[in-house]
Specification:
This protein is an alpha+beta fold. The chain has 4 helices and 5 strands, in the order αααβββββα.
């Protein structure tokens, strides 16, 4: 036998009624609030996890927040352009407890970008050392999808197609 779920009903002074009222009052953050929160989260993350590198190279004006896209299941995020076709992308993985910082840089093939999730300052320093040897480009990996399907990168860093 199939039971149907009846929606919760609450008396006017119950905790559930208060929670419903709070949810209605707080509502959903606006796009501007999400952008600002994403920028703040990115700054806080690099100040705490990358105190000797990124926190010295970037300030709050370098970050640009992006609102969440519920239809695409994308959390709010922030990006920072580092020059030379390099970008940082910061977001949280579903909850605020797990931040993800990704370095995005051109591929040596010249046909797209490669992204690398960073795992702390030592990892960043190793990647920077490796990329210096390739002129700031990630080595092309023939086992990855064709870079041309991602984005075209011109020699001077223009990512237009």
């Amino acid at each position: 036998m199939t039971e149907t779920l009846t929606p919760p009903t609450a008396s006017a002074d119950s905790p559930l009624a208060h929670l419903f009222d709070i949810a209605r009052e707080i509502g959903t953050p606006t796009d501007d609030e999400q952008r600002e929160d994403a920028e703040t989260a990115a700054l806080d993350y690099i100040w705490n996890v990358y105190p000797d590198t990124l926190s010295k190279a970037l300030d709050e004006d370098d970050w640009s927040g992006r609102p969440a896209h519920a239809g695409a299941v994308l959390e709010s995020s922030a990006v920072a352009h580092l020059d030379g076709g390099w970008w940082l992308h910061h977001t949280t993985a579903g909850d605020d407890a797990h931040a993800v910082l990704t370095l995005i840089a051109p591929c040596t093939c010249g046909d797209g970008y490669v992204d690398q999730v960073l795992d702390g300052e030592a990892d960043l320093l190793q990647i920077l050392t490796d990329l210096r040897a390739t002129g700031g480009r990630f080595p092309h990996d023939t086992h990855r999808p064709d870079c041309r399907s991602i984005r075209r990168v011109r020699a001077w860093g223009d990512d237009s197609q």
